[in-house]
Specification:
This protein has 111 residues and is mainly α. The protein has helices at residues 2-47, 54-76, 85-110. Helix 1 packs antiparallel against helix 2 (54-76). The longest helix is centred in the N-terminal third of the chain and has 46 residues, at 2-47. The radius of gyration is 22 Å and the shape is elongated.
């Protein structure tokens, strides 16, 4: 009886892991497709740059780059998973320091 219960437990655990991996793969494919779309939108902005103002094109491409960076960190670098809080803290701290430094230099240059 104990072997049968153990076997049933393994089958349930296997089904759970397969379903979880299937969901993870689906999320990765969706985020990959979104990143391809963002990349194509960036290329389109560069190709048709003569139709748009540079004041639109440059911030648009930068915005798409930031969105793509967030997707890559969140899905492909697995920052959404448990156990990555220390790495996420240092990463986001570095991004915050870099953003503050950039804003400081931009303020000094433009004022």
């Amino acid at each position: 009886m104990g072997t049968n219960t153990h076997s049933h437990h393994n089958q349930v655990e296997l089904k759970y892991h397969r379903r979880k991996h299937k969901e993870e793969m689906k999320q990765q494919l969706i985020s990959f497709l979104l990143m391809i779309i963002l990349t194509l939108a960036s290329f389109a902005a560069v190709i048709y740059r003569d139709k748009f103002s540079p004041y639109f094109t440059v911030p648009f491409i930068l915005l798409l780059a930031v969105v793509q960076l967030i997707f890559q960190l969140y899905y492909f670098m697995h920052m959404k998973n448990k156990g990555h809080s220390t790495q996420a803290f240092f990463l986001y701290s570095g991004v915050t320091v870099a953003a503050i430094t950039l804003l400081t230099f931009l303020t000094l240059i433009w004022l």
